[in-house]
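This section describes the prediction task in plain terms. A model, or a person checking by hand, is given the sequence of a single protein chain and must write out its three-dimensional structure as a string of tokens. No templates, partner chains or ligands are provided. The sample shown here is typical of the held-out split.
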Amino acid sequence: MPDSGSEALADKRQSVVVLRLVTSPTGRLLYGEVIDVVAGPSGRFAGWRGMTSAVQTWLTRELDETSRPTPINEWTDAGPRPSKH
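The expected answer:
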């Protein structure tokens, strides 16, 4: 009899995303990037709200079988933007 955990896992779709985070010296999330391991960079964000929004946007695109991965280069959320040095 198959392991019920393995059977349940077989019915699921797995996706992998990397979060590249930049934090302040005190550990505050400043900004980052969502990177799909298959499609590449998916979105940039600032702050916690921006991160959750960017991950939600990535997941929505990931679950939409008809869409093609389209990297976005816009910042998400109204937060402080990193300075360009």
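For orientation: The radius of gyration is 16 Å.
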